[in-house]
Amino acid sequence: MLLRFSSGDFHNATATDGQTGAVLFHISTPEPVRERAPSVASLYSFASSSTAVSEPAQPVQKTTFITDSEGAALAEITWRDRYYATSIRIGERTFNGTGEIFDSHYVKCLPDETIIPTQLEYKWRTTPDSLTLLDDDHNVIGRLYENYTPINCKLIPASKRAPGYDYLRLNKVPTSELVEVLVTFLLMTTLRERMYWITTYVYGSKAGQPRSAIGKLRKQAHRSLVHWRETLFRAKRD
């Protein structure tokens, strides 16, 4: 199966069949409702009050919704402060954060790649410029193609004059597991952004960077991955 995303923002995109164009999933993450702006009178009252104490800002919470082509709910991911998934629902199943959908005990942080297993016995492998899905035998069964275009039934890197789309190719993934794989994909793309501190556009242009810059990138990724793994362990203990 080949999924084509209508936007590089995977949290707000429509996923269609890359061959037929049929809509498969709608993914949306509405912005949280903002409080009404205070009136001039309330601002004056607040400013003139000697007892007014500023309260710490509350964490921003968003929810990503995944629906089918008819709008039926399939899954939800609740986020805190953009990067932390605090609650995940897939069908009737609920997971208390990433610690229950990923197997944190077997995360591997290697010099050139990071491998994160899922509860489905698949593994996501991420590098600064790639994201692939592996089966239990480490065979590649899924791959993210960023800014590609289809030509003669093949995906070719798009040119600057004609930007392409992002595609997710999945092979040998049962239909019954497709939604859960899509959920873990969204979690991984968010983690990947957090790990490497660069956007999808920069991933594509990394080849021209000097070795020193890549070395710094790996150090940042390692520190972020260690913190993320500690978060998973805390979630499991709780």
UniProtKB/TrEMBL annotation:
It comes from the Eukaryota. This is Uncharacterized protein. It comes from Phanerochaete sordida.
